[in-house]
Amino acid sequence: MSEKRRWYERVGPGLITAAVVLGPGSIVSSSRAGADSGYGLVWMLAVSCLVMAVFTSMGARIGCALEESFLQFLSKRWGRPIAVVTGFSAFFVAAGFQFGNNLGVAYALEGIIPGVPAWIWPIVFTTLSLVFMLMAKNVYHLLELVMRFFVGIMLVAFIGNLFFTGISIPGLATGLIPKKFGEGEFIIAAGMLGTTFSAVAAFYQAYLVQAKGWHKENLRNAIQDAWIGIGILGTMGLVIMIGAAQTLHETGGDFKHIGQLANQLKEVLGSSAGIVFGLGLCAAAFSSFIANALIGGTLLADGLGLDPRMEKTPTRICAGAALLIGCGVAIATMQAGVGGSQSVLIAQTSTIIASPLCALLLYYFANNAALMGDLKNKLMSNIIGAIGLLILLGLAFRTIGKVWGTLSTMMAG
């Protein structure tokens, strides 16, 4: 076997995790950081990626150590209820944020192929995703190939956008130095942390390494893959932030969702740059389509005690349900302006449960000597992991406030 082939086999699960995390939400948060703070929050992106890489590595090591799926092991250890709670909360996170992936694809292709109604694209891409999951014999192998393709498009598109925007090397170097948050920067940094550090995706890494066929003897590959994948995620987030810092910083422009962002970049940089950014956005949204739905479908099936393997019927049905919910809400929002706030509310409420729970389970079992043996966490992983747990708990309390505010507004209306 050639060295190139051996290198190729060391990458896969981490790349899928990077593709699912880099969706419309993370693109908006990185762009918001660049537009509002210039290069000032580059260090915060680095911290977010470091924490994500450590937890993703925990998931990879747990997957290599287990002879069964994570939630099957958990249900035998602590009972079925906690597995059910984990599975359902992860499913509703996936279903809720699938709505954002649909809007991302619609806005991206609306700029690339004008004249086609935007609501058509969620139907097209949901149908393609359903065909993918229902027809593929080896879902993981095909998923890995598809994610490689889309990650390649994202890298070319977003890095290519730098030819239009330029880059400030001194600004980038200065941005890597941690500093106190300026006015409004804490909220922006919290949003970037929330979209970059996905504990549910890190938890799912245990399933991906098992689907890849990796065991304890493949531990080195699994850890390298996790760090490479999150390194790619960080690179794309950085490039997006640079583009926004160069073009939107101090312009006074505002954007709340991916469509407004795409329109602003098109106005500033021209139609060619807008098309390049749109291609990257489309690849980011569609890559999250399939992998995000599989996360929700796999964990729900496993939580219920069903077969969690990707090619098995329970996972396909549950993942298909996540796809259809996201598509339906997106179309309803675009056509009638209803359903969007409820979808976000469900996703936020589920995140309050799923993210801290998944992170705590990863942290606990990655330190379990009986399970992990010499694969358990080292001191630095525990320190960074503890920081990550504190961050997630802080974000959960912040989200509780947002959910309560949204509920109060809905009840008052």
Walkthrough of the structure:
- By secondary structure, this protein is an all-alpha fold.
- It is 81% helix and 0% strand.
- The chain has helices spanning 3-9, 13-21, 24-37, 42-65, 70-78, 80-112, 120-135, 139-160, 162-165, 169-175, 185-196, 199-212, 219-247, 258-269, 271-303, 313-336, 340-366, 369-372, 379-412.
Brief write-up:
By secondary structure, this protein is an all-alpha fold. It has 19 helices and no strands. It has helices at residues 3-9, 13-21, 24-37, 42-65, 70-78, 80-112, 120-135, 139-160, 162-165, 169-175, 185-196, 199-212, 219-247, 258-269, 271-303, 313-336, 340-366, 369-372, 379-412.
Features:
413 residues; mainly alpha; 0% strand; globular; disordered N terminus; 19 helices
Which helices and strands appear, and what pairs or packs with what?
Blueprint: H1 3-9, H2 13-21, H3 24-37, H4 42-65, H5 70-78, H6 80-112, H7 120-135, H8 139-160, H9 162-165, H10 169-175, H11 185-196, H12 199-212, H13 219-247, H14 258-269, H15 271-303, H16 313-336, H17 340-366, H18 369-372, H19 379-412
Helix pairs in contact: 2-8, 2-12, 2-13, 2-15, 3-11, 3-13, 4-11, 4-12, 4-13, 4-17, 4-19, 5-6, 6-7, 6-14, 6-15, 6-16, 6-17, 7-16, 8-13, 8-15, 12-17, 14-15, 15-16, 17-19
Radius of gyration: 20 Å
Helix amount: over 70%
Number of helices: 19
* Terminal-residue CA separation: 65 Å
Shape: globular
What is the averaged pLDDT score?
84
Largest sheet: none
